[in-house]
Each structure stands twice: as C-alpha cells, then as structure tokens.
Amino acid sequence: MNALILYGTETGNAEATATAISQVLAGTVDSEVHDLADTTPDAMTQAGADLVVLVTATHGEGDFAGGGADFFEALTETKPDLTGLRFAVFGLGDSYYTTFNQAGETAATILTTLGATQVGDTARHDASSGDDPEEIAEEWAREVLAALPAPVAS
User: How many independent structural domains does the chain possess?
Assistant: First the structure.
C-alpha cells in the first residue's frame, strides 16, 4: 500500500506533523511526504497512491497555509474525477479564532465533491490546547490505518 502525504504550512508545524504521520505508517504503508507548494493536483492521481493524507494548517481568515491555497484553487478549477481515491485530513488550527480548522474542513469538502472517499474523521488539532500536534497525529494515523480496508489477497 502507498500513501502520499501532502502538507501546507506557514510555521513548520504541518511539515513536522506530516513527517510524524509518515513514521507511523512506515512498515505498513510506503509513503512520500511533499509540500503542497511544490505539488500539483495531478500528483494525487499520478502517484499511484492508495491513500492521500492532507495535513493542513488554517491561516488568516480560514485560508489554507503555505501552498495549500494554490493547490486547492487548481484542484477546484481542473475538477479531476477522484472516484476511487481514499483520503484522510489532519487539520491544525487554534480555537481562539472563529475559523478554527477551516482549511481542513474545506479540503475534505473539496475532495469528497470530486468523488474521493474520506477514511476516518478529520482530525482537528487545537494549538490553544497545549497538546503536541505530532503526538495527536501519531494516534490519529493509527486510527486511519485501522480504518483502511484490508488488502485483497492474491
């Protein structure tokens, strides 16, 4: 099984969280970690990934952090058929703001609208909680792994 882990970050937290998720998946799932700023929507379908994991921070007024805005704008413009693609979303935000984790919610909505199927619940890390996002992500990644369908025996 292969996973493509994509992150959008302003401060580096989403990148560190994406790396922590990759480490949990190691041994069970082969994964690659990429910055959304350096990725096009085609990567989701051309990489042959069985699972796309999006790790995105909410920035400003509910916007995607880092390259996420350009990535999701291109995705909504090109409207690829993502039927058969499974995805999971780990959002980072701060409940101090009314737009708490809006980017993660928006990402999940866009992908399901294009036909992709979400695995597990969207994670919503709260920076105000004081919890380490990497620790929360590791636990969440184990839950996502458990929710994946078992591979078909050949």
Answer: 1
